[in-house]
Amino acid sequence: MRALHVNWRDLPPEPWKNGGGVTRTLAVDDAARARKMPPRWRVSVADITSDGAYSRFPGVDRVSVVLSGAGVALRGDGVDIALLPGRAVAFAGDVALQSRLLDGAVRVLNLFVLRGAVHAQVRCGGAQPVIVNAGSWEDADAHASHVRMVVDAQNFYIDSSCQDDAASADALPPDAVRIDLRMAAPGAFC
C-alpha cells in the first residue's frame, strides 16, 4: 500500500453485499490479496437511505461511525446497537441485524477486521473523543505492520508516518475519525 490522500466522494460506489445500498471502499488489505487470502481489514463509507437488513460478515469484527445524519438503530437476536454521529461502536459482523434510520439518510464509516488477525483502534475527534478497540492480535512482535488512516466527511488520508505521539492524537479535527491497525508483517507499512 502506498501513501494516499483523496476525496473519497470521487471513488466509485459499489453495491452492498446484500444488494440494499452502496458503499465506497477507501482501503483494503492489499498484502493479503497479493497472497490470495481474504483481506484482514477493509475500510469503507456506506450511504444508507432506507431501513433494511445489514450485511453479515461471519468471523469479522466491525466498527462503525456515523459521519452525517442522525443515526441508525440496529436490532438483531438479543442485540440492540445505536450508531450515532461521532461515536465509534464495535460489534460482531456475525449477527443478523435489521437497521432503522433515526431521522433520514446517513453516511457511515465502516471498519471490518478479520477476528484474530488484526488489532484495530478507532478514535473520533471532538471535545469528548471515543476510543474503541476491535479485533485482536496477540503477538506483539517487533515485526508488526501498522497502518493509520484519517477519514472525515469528505477526505481520506493514509498516514505514512504512524507517529504515536500525544500531539497527533490531540490534533484530530472534531469531524475526523482515526483508525490504527496493527497486524503481523510481512510488508510492514510503517
In brief:
With about 190 residues, the chain is mainly beta. Helices cover about 5% and strands about 50% of the residues.
Write down the overall geometry.
Answer: globular
Distance between the termini: 11 Å
Radius of gyration: 16 Å
Report the total helices.
2
Search tags:
5% helix; mainly beta; 6-stranded antiparallel β-sheet; 2 helices
Q: What does this molecule look like?
A:
By secondary structure, the chain is mainly beta. It has 2 helices and 16 strands. The protein has helices spanning 30-34, 166-170; strands at residues 4-7, 14-15, 22-28, 41-48, 52-54, 60-68, 72-76, 79-83, 89-92, 97-101, 106-114, 118-124, 131-135, 144-151, 155-159, 177-184. The strands form 3 sheets. It has a 6-stranded antiparallel beta sheet with strand order 1-15-14-16-12-13, with no helix packed on it. A 6-stranded antiparallel beta sheet has the order 2-3-4-11-6-9, with no helix packed on it. A hairpin with a 6-residue loop joins strand 12 (118-124) and strand 13. The N and C termini lie close together (11 Å). The relative contact order is 0.21. The mean pLDDT is 83.
Break the fold down into its secondary structure elements and pairings.
Layout: E1 4-7, E2 14-15, E3 22-28, H1 30-34, E4 41-48, E5 52-54, E6 60-68, E7 72-76, E8 79-83, E9 89-92, E10 97-101, E11 106-114, E12 118-124, E13 131-135, E14 144-151, E15 155-159, H2 166-170, E16 177-184
Antiparallel strand pairs: 1-15, 2-3, 3-4, 4-11, 5-10, 6-9, 6-11, 7-8, 7-10, 12-13, 12-16, 14-15, 14-16
